[in-house]
Amino acid sequence: MDPLASGITRLKVADVELELFHKGAGRPLLILHGGGGLDHRSEYLDLLAAHFEVFAPSHPGFGHSPLPERFESVDDLAYLYLDLLDACDLKDAVLIGFSLGGWIAAELAVRCAHRLSKLVLVGAVGIKVSDRETRDIPDIFATAPDDVARLVFHDPARAAVDFGALTDEELTIIARNRESLALYTWEPYMHNPGLRYQLHRIHIPTLFIRGASDGLISQKYAEAYAALIPGARLEVIAEAGHLPQIEQPRKFADRVVSFARQ
User: Can you give the residue ranges of every domain in the chain?
Assistant: First the structure.
């Protein structure tokens, strides 16, 4: 494969075209974003690019990545990123997954982790912890936007968006991100019933990160998830919600860099 350009570029993986943020040099770091999509202007991306060669694709259906007709599940995404690791010949890679991206990362790691050295799951969804009648994760599709903001952010004011100031392109991306999130996570809601029984297959060092004010992923849920992966540990970042990489980017980047160096 030809060398990738730095910045926002395009990457073809088999027949799938991906929008890709690529920056930095050194050990490869593959970032799988959450349900809100990837904001290429986020400070944490530059902080990590100072230590790693960062590969951050937009999932099919998110951002400017086309959605192939055959894509409809997290399984499709996990196999896509296994192909990406092969196509880019990434070795000794650190894999980070946020929320939905954490679910994808876990599914990827249980299948094949020989190109990975470390796994970081941030506010990851993907498993069922409670009984059938108890919801583990609030239904964000049936919750008022102001209430979702209080669940997601330590400081809900950070969720404020002036939609009138956005371009048509930016509004379209927000809409297709939400539509694609529903496509991949709606039924069953935010989990794969079988994943919890496969997590023992992950044998690379794994770090869970949770924002202390996360109203979507409870401490109980995060602890139960971490307990299913051999040797995994859980760390909590204060004054952060479901997006610690956004609310506390330097603390978050420091945790990742320290873990990668261990």
Answer: 7-261
Q: 87-140, pLDDT tens digit by residue?
A: 999 999 999 999 999 999 999 999 999 999 999 999 999 999 999 889 999 999
Q: What one-character-per-residue DSSP string does 144-208 give?
A: -HHHHHHHH-SSGGGG---GGGS-HHHHHHHHHHHHHHHHHHTTTTTB-TTGGGTGGG--S-EEE
Predicted confidence at residue 201, as pLDDT, reads 98
Distances 132 to 136, 184, 187 between C-alpha atoms, Å: 10, 20, 14
Tokens of 255: 């945790």
Please give the model's pTM, rounded to 2 decimal places. 0.97
In one-letter notation, the amino acid at residue 54 is: V
Burial of 53 (0-12, 13-18, 19+ CB in 10 A): buried
Measured at the CA of 159, the angle between CA 30 and CA 235, to 5 degrees, comes to 50
7-261: what CATH class?
alpha beta
Residues comprising the chain, all counted: 262
| Mean pLDDT, all residues of the chain | 96
User: What's the distance, Cα to Cα, between the start and end of the chain in Å?
Assistant: 31
- Residue 119: strand pairing partners: 95, 206
Position 1 confidence tier, pLDDT thresholds 50, 70, 90: low
